[in-house]
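Weekly structure sync, notes
Attendees: PL (lead), two postdocs, one rotation student
Agenda item 3: pending single-chain targets
PL asked that the sequence for the first pending target be pasted directly into the notes so everyone works from the same version. It is reproduced below exactly as submitted, 193 residues in total.
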Amino acid sequence: MSPRAGLDRAAVVEAAAKMTDDAGEVVTLAGLASRLGVRAPSLYNHVDGQAGLRRELALFGVRDLLSRIVRASVGKVSSDALVAVSQEYREFALDHPGIYPLTQAAPDPDDAELAASAAEIVEVLGTLMESFGLEGDAAVHAIRGLRSLLHGFVMLETTGGFGIPLDIDESFERAVRTFILGLHQAAAATEIS
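Predicted structure, written out during the meeting:
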């Protein structure tokens, strides 16, 4: 087996991402090497073993999610922005069933690149929470609540947890709209105290 011309880190990660999403779990270096037509040891020129591959896939996913939520929120504020960002988050999870779980853990603080990309997502969500009048700790609590709502919903959806024949899209929209009502109440309570 000879090395494939044009193989670089980006091509390795892109192939691994596609395979991971197709399989629903992180691929092995041996499986990836076979798909790319190279020997597994040659992948070490592009990723730092299996742990390095997982890290690259997490970074790939976080960057994609960040790009999606930024695009979704452009020109929108408050409720409209939150609905758009929530829908994009859900689409990301559905589009990337293998990558999505890798984006959920807090990044290692020693991994500056991954930590910075994850922090940008929090910044976007923080700006969104400011449009509801929530800042500081109140915004962090709201972001955690939003992530919990979205993650719980997509995990139930992707694992077949919704067996009742009722429109899942409508259920998602209602859940997000209910959360938005709660944000308005939290902002009002913050103003009163």
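Discussion points:
- DSSP finds seven helices and no strands in the chain.
- The CA atoms of residues 132 and 184 lie 6 Å apart.
Action: rotation student to compare against the earlier draft before next sync.
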